[in-house]
């Protein structure tokens, strides 16, 4: 059905007959040349044949007009052409009372329901309340609060973030209209004619209340300090519409002056009022029969511009004005809405800065072709754009278009060695390695089998669990979204926000927080340094203690971390923008672990030094003037003699030791500085070890690994020894072929790293040049907490974890057999599983092939330091150290001499930092939050996501996406180390 309208809404002749002919003056039936606005479009809304229009409003953010009818249906129209955009049902029967637009959608009010929908029509939330009995109007107090009124004795202040309401009782007989003039006052008009002015900051109390009309109020609006109202007056025969608009000055109402109101007469009794936002003192008054008058509120005698809306002999029920005042929209009871704009503006703009409206993707038309058409070219239909990937599935790679023949079996090297060429033909004797019709077993080294296994592993690759991936949590001004935070953390433990570029260290911060001795040390640390990482960590740990499970941010720590020059030199500070997303987190977090332990150690030492300096200065007598004959350089500037110090005098007495014996101590320091610098182990960054025995801190007592470093020149056999200490142990992987690496287990790596041996060029004072030097480290002291950097940076190191460390299996599980081979000495089958008299036992010869390839870390370790400095390591459940694969070589070596155990420690895995090979890469931490003997509890910390995990999941690293970075093994001494350090 189509509806045609004549120009300027002039009714045609067949509509001007009979009972439909309006009884208006002739001057309003013709278009006025003085009218400022004229009709641009009129449309019949959805459901307009059954229901009238009950609400209409311009969108504040987009070029849209929203309409609601008496049947609970909402429709939106785009632009001045009134193109239908969306249409949806809000309530099955109740009419739409009011509509307001917000940034994320619209709020539609019915009699008892408030519905929040996005502009594309999808519902987001429906709010119902027992206090919503007969609602009428809406007003937006702020971006997060709505004020609702109706024909009831209360207002409802609704918080949109928390979805909680505050009931405001009112003395007036309901609230039918809510309007504001842009200031702090909002006008509340009741149906009985009473107007109350309320402050939007404190809407509970009315600032001023007065009666605007004696019978009832039709409409009101505010602009600045002006308030306009229209309504009905009470007479003997009943309520009569007032043919004027009453203008109120809010300032005079507050002062109680009598000249606060004046009236402006209109041609028809007004029913709807609205100010023009773009003009000061201009208002629109609409009568129920469709007559519109533009008023000058400040000049009542000014000539009015009038025009008429063609309402099809129905009542004009609603209206609205755009924010630019370039468009007026009217709705009537016949189901039509009419858009008006100025006479010379045919393309009005609803808002000055409207954002683009989202439309549906256009449907690409495909030509229709007969099924029997053999001449149609299918290539003429273009393919749609790829949503993901770079090519289609039906595009075969180029290597599939080449002829590839089956590879021949390799020729026996013995045949090639003994072959004699006669022209193009070669002759060789039969090596008799195979008998007639004999084929070898399929061994693991065949290329086709290995390629097939790699393809099988590629397609059965398990996906990464969601709680291991980088969390994408939306943040608002109050922090993370509460609903998303509750879904990812149900443990009650506090998480750390990852909103900054250097938040990659959040797993390590959680590990330090759940290490009781470290936490107690940092909480007790105080100093006067401006950017002290120990102080910031103590503040962060205290904030995590008092957060009651709420997420915290390490912003203060990261701000101090960026100011440390050593961290910038090590490349630990990532930029806010740029290549930070491509940073390799695996070596980065290991460098960060080594750096933070050293930094806390030196900060605590510096604090102790300053405290002892102050105590020494307070107890020492005044200094006497120094002799001028000393030729030592002055280090304190051009001051008097009593303030002059030489370098040794300034540094020596203010350290830990007193003046007694200080000369020998500091002389020893100078001697060490003059000697050739010993070669340092770059894998284990050591402390300043010349004074390691006296420069002790709580961190060094917990993490320091004591070694005796012995360097021997291979040219002159000169030996040089020194004491060293390292706060973290870096795993040293074996060199050589890949097959040799596969036979190494994790325990052997730890043992080789604790007592490292290697050869490297170093300076020799005796030879006076760089010579090959062997370095051997003998373990002297075991720490209460063993921190292990797993490496995994190079290709060889990554191959170790991708293949997995080995663990022996029993004979029954390997599938081996103890029966002798029937071929005996003549057996030529490679990899035969039977016994042979000329071959070693299959359980030892094929150890590397018969071991479990799953990478499993031990939960408990037992480390024994022998009297000669060697180290024996085995798992706690293995009672025999001789049977451990990591100790077989040592057992054979010490058979000839008696070696006693000097010290022994039992370690338990307490935390592990893991790198997840995802896009982007992510760092997570496994932490043992409960250290009870019978009930150890493990949790996975991924920024704000905290979930419980099992111990088996912690120690298994067979997955392709999980690589260990830092491991922490704690002994029983770690629980009391902090108390011993304080005593």
TrEMBL record:
UniProt name for this protein: USP domain-containing protein
Gene Ontology biological process terms from the UniProt entry: nuclear-transcribed mRNA poly(A) tail shortening
Stored PROSITE patterns: USP_3
Source species, domain of life: Eukaryota
Region Disordered: start-end pairs: 662-695, 875-903
GO molecular function: poly(A)-specific ribonuclease activity
Segments of skewed composition (Basic and acidic residues): 680-695
Residue ranges of every copy of the USP domain listed in the record: 494-972
GO CC annotation, single: PAN complex
Pfam family, one: PAN2_N
Residue ranges the record marks as coiled coil: none
